[in-house]
Amino acid sequence: ETVVVTVPKPRVAPARPASGPARGPRNGGTAMAAPAAGTGSGTADGAAQAQPVNPPPYAVQARRALRRPGAESVVSVTQQDPGTKSNLRQVLDEVPGVLIGQRGGENSLGSISIRGSDTSQAGPRGGRGVRAFADGVPLGRLVTGVTLPLLDLKSTDYIEVYRGASSLRYGALATGGALNLVSKTGRTAPGATISTAGGSNRFRESQIELGGAKDKYDFYFQVNDHFDGGYEFNSRNYAPRFSGNFGWQPTENIENRTYVAIGKNLQELPTSVPMSQLSRYRQSGYDPSNTSFPYDLRANYEYQRVVNKTVIRSDTTSVEIAPYFLLSAFDHLPSPSAGIQDVVWTDWGVSLRLENRNELIGRPTELVFGYRPTYEDASYKTYQWAKGTRGATKASLVYDDAFHAWFHEGYGEAAIEVMPRVKLFTGAQAFWTDRNYHDGYSGARIASGTEASPAGGFGIGPASSNGLRNYERDFSAFNPKFGVNWEYQPNHFVYANIARSTEVPNAGDISSLLTLQQTVNGLRAGTLNMIDNLAMQRAWTGEIGVRGGWDRFRYDVAVYDMRLNDEILSACALNFIPLSRFTVAQQAQLRGQFACSNANSLVAFNVDKTRRTGVEAGFKTRPVVDVLAAGDHVHLDVTYTFIDSRFVDDPTFGNAQMPLTPRHQAFAELGYRHPAGFFAAGNIRFVGERWTTFDNSGGDAFVAPASTLYGARVGWKAPDKSWSVWAEGRNLTDVAYVSDFAPLLRSADAPTTPGGTPFVYPGAGRAFFAGFSKTFN
Q1: Where is the TonB-dependent receptor plug domain (predicted)?
Q2: Is 135 left (phi over 0), alpha (psi -120 to 50) or beta?
């Protein structure tokens, strides 16, 4: 959100906060940190006449989150202890309600779920239920979903985490919530910094940063290079990235900042393995028929992003104007039967926001209005590939699809201080969007091909389109919100809210269902029609929470209940094909093209009613201080999440527990910190059992077992932040555990070889890492 803070003149690049008793042990000062006594609740920082900073500093956003009516956390990346920070899991460990699966090692593979939103990385979802933003503008797909390869934590100052739908600006179009990554600038990260790290599985990364500020100008640029050989066979990852921004304040009332980012993420795709043989195949992969290993399975992203944000202010009003552009490309080689995927997305739009602080009926009032139109067009092409090339050379074009959509989103909110330290919030978000998918293939009919196909012009991959894969539809919704925040004692808050959220089918949902219907109905006309019935997902969430703390103890606890209608889920396409209607040869073709082990085999479907009930709790404590020296301390941090996620009187699944989401999840860390900069800690991460079937059939053989992982880290960070060295160990007991999987409708749908077990993606084994950084001011 746009926040107003007082900045002394002249504006000098601030030093990064030093370690000390008031600092959070691992996540710096998260939103759980208590603000300084006497800050009150008036405007965002208690200043009526103030000067904005674009973007607002971390400390201001952390204080502001305490006074919001929903579960919001602000996590500093730069104030955390040094480490690899290669993915979100390493940064958001101590945020309750967030589940992040990690596959194959230090890479962008995996999934993110907030409050039980869809967690599987495979298929068309791409992190459904969580919206991603960078510096307040959309990052990635048009409406919802997190494209993890686009997130560059190395250039991030802090992350705003919105759990649930209470954030109208970011979260009302996602069941789980939203993330907003706020970039470093020349004022928050001055100087030149060199960082490097290395570790297990040939992991290595390095970064060079340069930032500074003078008078009305500031700049920050960074380049980083990441490589990981991967724990599992065929999980290598390479990701070079560049990003930066330039700030300019032409007058006292106008600020402008331009952001640029360029990068790529080249990711090999490991295979899923039988859960009953997880320990045996977790590193080597599983491919007894040699149908995957001969091919270069991979998922490659490239992106270019430009944003220009201007903030214009007066004494009581600020206006934000931010046009943005994102070009991203995806080269995917999922399996021999699916062909080479070649996708290019182009997104552009503008974010408009007005914020006014004044009085209404004699009470302090904040009014916020925003409008964000976005247009996306995309090209979806699929090719067969030439024999003998292992997928490296494209052959015949078989799919040539175009997608375009408009998305108009508006929101408004009023926050009224009805009495000292009590604020009432009311607001709404409304949107209209369309979905237009056009099959542009007009070439000759091309048959599907395999390595066993006759020579002479046959490629490997699916048959060509019939030119009839077309779809046009629009969606709209109005999502209200009501909330309250009460500072019942200084630095102690209680809040409550009720909010509506919606999600609409995305381009991946449409493409996968059209492909499934065309293939099935091409073999037997009229067999399948799913896409016309795919509906928008709707939910109401009620939430109550408390947060705040004292000097040595901080807490953040939330309880919520979410009721969903027409939830969009995903399952293997084979579950929806009546195979008994087809010949033996046709069944073999369908089982090959839509095999559940293929990354592109999942399709979307609705269920009538579902429900999530949860408890999210986080605690930060310093039980012992002045142990060996004045100012040192022992810290104990605990995060716990409980989610009861289930169907409600479903005709197919009854009241079964939903798959993928564990009922219990916890993270705890015990450590020591010395004022000279030395730190050491041990941690434990627990993820409970998870069903792999929607109907909870199959018994214990179809329950992903709970896992407990142990880690440790040690290091030193100079008090002036000029030097840091660190070492870390993860999964120290080398536990074989399940990281991610695509759920089955029922246990009977499990692959016949080997029988009686689901296929899952293993987590990484024991690993060690070390690194250092040096800053020159």
Answers
A1: 70-178
A2: left
Q: How far apart are CA 442 and CA 402, in angstroms?
A: 13
CATH for 567? 2.40.170.20
When divided into structural domains, the chain yields a total of 1
Domain range for 492: 4-776
Residue 288 has a CB neighbour count (10 Å cut-off) of 9
Q: Which residues contact 214 (CB under 8 A, 6 or more apart)?
A: none
Query: Quick check: 315 pLDDT over 70?
Result: yes
pTM: 0.89
399-455 pLDDT tens trace: 999 999 999 999 999 999 999 999 999 999 999 999 999 999 998 888 887 766 655
Contacts of 147 (CB under 8 A, 6+ apart): 126, 127, 132, 139, 140, 141, 301, 328
Asked whether the bond before 420 is cis by omega within 30 degrees of 0, the reply is: no
pLDDT at 39 over 60: no
- What phi and psi values does residue 613 have, to the nearest 5 degrees? -125, 130
How far from each other are the two terminal CA atoms of the chain, in whole angstroms?
A: 31
How many Å is the maximal CA-CA distance in the chain? 83
Q: Are strands 177-183 and 130-134 parallel, antiparallel or unpaired?
A: parallel
pLDDT digits (tens, 9 = 90+) for 707-743: 999 999 999 999 999 999 999 999 999 999 999 888 8
> Does the pLDDT of residue 117 top 70, yes or no?
yes
The angle subtended at Cα 171 by Cα 165 and Cα 176, nearest 5°, is: 65
